[in-house]
Amino acid sequence: MDYLNASYRYVDELLPSIEDLNSDFLSTDFLTVEGFDFLDISWFHFFHVWLFLFMSSFILIALSHIYYKTYPEVSEGLIKGKRVLIVIAHPDDECMFFGPTIVNLTKKSGVDVHLMCLSEGNYYGDGDIRSRELLSSCQELGIPLSNIRLFSNGHLPDDPLVDWDPEIVASLISWHVEAMAMDTLLTFDDRGVSGHRNHIAISRSVNVLLSENRLPSSCKCYALKSESIFLKYTGFLIVFLKRKHSNVYVSSHTDHKTIKNAMSKHASQYVWFRKLFVTFSSYCYLNTLVCPQI
Ligand SMILES: [Zn+2]
């Protein structure tokens, strides 16, 4: 404790007194270090900043042009199955996170994409509105209405503070995989992409199913990889960083427009920061799939 007291005294001595704050501390002299004046921004410095911004903009525009022209094709990706079940927690997860995978799969002939949404997104009491928005969004993404299962279950509330019971979620998923003869299951990974507890709960439930061999052996499981914070907001630039990987689905320029249109169907959620998200989030341009590790 003496050591701590000594430390606090030392810090106190370093702090300026009230008189200092009223006079010298806020004077421009304080901003001068070893002869360098921070307030002296000359035209020479201004030119370098301008040049940096100009070159950065030029490179970004050139890369976006290459992106628009280079990726009109369908990504092959990892999924080879014909009956794909995607499990999400809330309306809008399908386009905010799984958009590139869904638009690529629905373009392939013979692939039937199904969606399970485990809550109505009723956190703010607008579950009815969000349910209808989900249907409109799925139509835009190419998922038939008959392939959508939307749940309103008191045990699975839309709530970032509630851990869903893994057994309830696991039972729902396994029943639907068997009843609808699914050969592929896709959901969040163990970090839940955005870290939402409801997303993570689905991942945990799938891990329970896999570890207890409760899924048909013909059903392959995949998880959407949570990108690092650096890659999460690189926008279309992630395409240049990861396009060579065999486990990715890439949105073409047209696909990205489709995802944006689908997101706009979630009108109650489409506020300014989600508009920015659709533009700058790498999940709207590229999905990386991995096999869950048990
Ligand atoms: Zn969600």
Automatic annotation (TrEMBL):
The keyword Transmembrane helix applies. The keyword Transit peptide does not apply. GO terms for molecular function: N-acetylglucosaminylphosphatidylinositol deacetylase activity. It holds the Pfam family PIG-L. It comes from the Eukaryota. The chain crosses the membrane at residues 47-68. Keywords: Membrane, Transmembrane, Transmembrane helix. InterPro entries: GlcNAc_PI_deacetylase-related, LmbE-like_dom_sf. One of its GO terms (cellular component) is endoplasmic reticulum. Its EC number is 3.5.1.89. PANTHER family: N-ACETYLGLUCOSAMINYL-PHOSPHATIDYLINOSITOL DE-N-ACETYLASE, N-ACETYLGLUCOSAMINYL-PHOSPHATIDYLINOSITOL DE-N-ACETYLASE-RELATED. Belongs to the PIGL family. This is N-acetylglucosaminylphosphatidylinositol deacetylase. It comes from Apolygus lucorum (Small green plant bug).
